[in-house]
Design a protein that fits this description.
Layout: E1 34-36, H1 43-51, E2 59-60, H2 61-66, E3 68-69, E4 72-73, H3 77-82, E5 102-106, E6 112-116, H4 118-121, E7 123-128, E8 131-136, H5 144-161, H6 163-170, H7 177-197, E9 208-209, H8 211-223, E10 237-238, E11 250-251, E12 257-258, H9 263-274, E13 279-285, E14 289-292, H10 299-307, H11 316-319, H12 324-337, E15 357-360, H13 361-364, H14 369-376, E16 378-380, E17 400-402, H15 403-416, H16 421-428, E18 444-447, H17 468-471, E19 481-484, E20 489-490, E21 495-496, E22 506-509, H18 528-540
Parallel strand pairs: 1-8
Antiparallel strand pairs: 2-6, 3-4, 5-6, 7-8, 9-10, 11-12, 13-14, 15-18, 16-17, 19-22, 20-21
């Protein structure tokens, strides 16, 4: 059975069908040193995943092309790179030469909109001695809050200082400029409201986002129109890697999302709604659903593409040859100390089915904030009160409900609003996996297979440990501050290279709330040579 992960990605066009090899640069890349590791995707699939939209409407495309930021184009390579985006050359799927993850779609009036797709957060890159290894489905390092803040500031600058020049650049006729001003003001108000709704004292920095917190606010505050439901999304976590995710029984860091039946469909809908999508609960669609901006057309394509994605293998030609004797000794250590939680996955088995182990917070000892926030989040149901969690099935929502149940209701409503019979049929079976209030997720975190673990630093769910070598140290000996965002890699420690924070990076401080690097003491008692053996095996996965 094909399964999918909670992400917004899909559609595009292409160039060639031959996947690049680990040793060869990508001929279509902006930098000749960019290398695509072999992960089972052709260039066509990669372009489709990088630039396809499933309904995210952030800003009109023409506006984005003419916005300025501190004397340079807002979308300049320098600005985008500092925010953590991966810059790209123009292509059929990306005619504007926007970074990876920027998507294009049109609204009902024919206006072209740019949004964000899954690849913005779920495409990684590892840099070593000038080589830049792209990681499809890897951990992105975008600074989401800084991007949103910069965009609002840029739009406000147009409104207050340079509207005339902006209108000229767009070719807007004098008689149409009042309408443009009104649309500009409405977008600024919408984005500012959203940004304020998701304000938090916990800085996300590069490579992290409290996705659940922002999804909860999108539904419980924005769509329901209930500002009292706002909760600070103050439990940022690393963007998870996507390889193996479609094959797992549950997804999300806390294992809260079933990955069977229509679960993947609903997970994607919630993300599409939260990432600059829209849901009008007052406007009915279909017989039972709500009108939304979600583009359902290519959900099957998303599922097929991610199902075929493989983990990246250690590129020996770039990072050095593996010591096979150490790998063999490390394999024995892994079998004794690790595999009971982190099951092995065969990247070459296209039908692999994997089970995640949920370890209670009290046992694993890692920062509890994300798990606790999810379980504690309750909201007024507002217009959803008295309706069934699954719209057509499940218990009725009381005046106050688990926010996750309100999100399920919104996602099912959006799906039922779509005319595709396949979508409605899929959602109709959701009652078989729908969690009841008595089936709330365990207060714990998911242990996933460690395929490609070398390419997914920093570690732990909140990104609080910069390398695998640090993770094998006792918590009290781990570094307490480090730079994130540069993508520079250290093969010796298997993780982020130690470097001071600079432009395009931010500092991770483990003393801040939600940032603890405690716990996960497994393997910390090994002697130095055994740790080296285990690290060598982990490189090979």
């Amino acid at each position: 059975m094909k399964r999918l992960f909670l992400i917004p990605c899909a559609l595009a066009l292409a160039a060639c069908n031959k996947p690049p090899t680990p040793e060869n640069p990508d001929p279509a890349a902006k930098d000749a040193n960019i290398v695509n590791l072999e992960q089972g995707w052709s260039r066509e699939v990669q372009q489709r995943a990088w630039f396809g939209s499933f309904g995210s409407h952030l800003v009109p495309t023409a506006w984005l092309e003419h916005l300025q930021w501190k004397g340079q184009p807002f979308m300049s390579d320098a600005h985008m790179d500092a925010l953590g985006f991966l810059t790209e050359l123009p292509s059929a799927a990306n005619p504007q030469s926007f970074p990876v993850g920027f998507t294009q779609t049109q609204d009902g009036d024919g206006q072209a909109w740019t949004g964000l797709g899954c690849a913005a957060c779920h495409t990684g890159e590892v840099r070593y001695q000038g080589k830049r290894m792209r990681l499809d489905g890897g951990q992105g390092v975008i600074d989401f809050n800084a991007f949103e803040s910069d965009l609002i500031a840029s739009l406000k600058a147009v409104q207050s200082d340079s509207f005339g020049g902006f209108a000229d650049a767009l070719g807007t006729a004098p008689g149409d400029r009042p309408a443009l001003q009104k649309q500009l003001g409405a977008l600024i108000e919408s984005l500012t409201t959203r940004h304020s709704m998701n304000r938090t004292d916990v800085a996300y920095g590069h490579g992290r986002l409290d996705a659940f917190g922002q999804i909860f606010n999108a539904v419980a505050v924005d769509f329901l129109g209930l500002p009292q439901n706002r909760r600070a999304p103050d439990a940022p976590v690393s963007f998870p890697v996507l390889w193996d995710a479609p094959h797992l029984d549950v997804v999300q860091w806390n294992g809260s999302a079933p990955n069977a039946g229509p679960g993947p469909l609903l997970q994607n809908i919630t993300t599409a709604l939260a990432v600059y999508g829209s849901l009008d609960i007052a406007k009915r669609a279909g017989v039972d659903g709500y009108a939304s901006s979600v583009d359902f057309t290519h959900l099957d394509q998303i599922e097929d593409d991610l199902y075929a994605l493989k983990s990246p293998q250690w590129p020996e030609a770039i990072l050095g040859t593996l010591d096979l004797q150490r790998v063999q000794r490390g394999e024995r250590i892994y079998a004794e100390a690790c595999v009971s939680c982190h099951t092995l996955s065969d990247r070459n088995d296209p039908k692999r089915e994997l089970k995640a182990v949920i370890t209670p917070v009290d046992e694993v000892g890692t920062d509890p904030r994300m798990a606790d926030n999810f379980l504690a989040s309750k909201s007024a149901s507002g217009a959803f009160e008295g309706k069934k969690v699954g719209v057509l099935f499940g218990p009725e929502l009381s005046a106050e409900a688990q926010t996750s149940d309100l999100v399920i209701h919104a996602a099912v409503g959006a799906a039922l609003g779509h005319p595709l019979a396949s979508v409605r049929d899929a959602v109709g079976s959701f009652h078989r996996v729908l969690k009841t209030p008595a089936d709330q997720p365990t207060r714990g975190y998911k242990a996933r297979p460690l395929s490609g673990i070398w390419a997914s630093a920093p570690y732990l769910h909140n990104g609080s440990v910069p390398s695998l070598a640090e993770l094998l140290k006792a918590p009290g000996e781990r570094v307490t501050a480090f730079a994130v965002g540069s993508r520079e890699f250290d093969p010796a420690t298997v993780g982020l290279a130690a470097s001071p924070a600079a432009t395009g990076s931010s500092t991770f401080d483990v003393s801040l709330p939600g940032n603890s690097n405690s716990g996960h003491t497994y393997g910390t008692g090994l002697d130095a040579d055994s740790k080296r053996d285990l690290l060598e095996y982990l490189r090979s996965l």
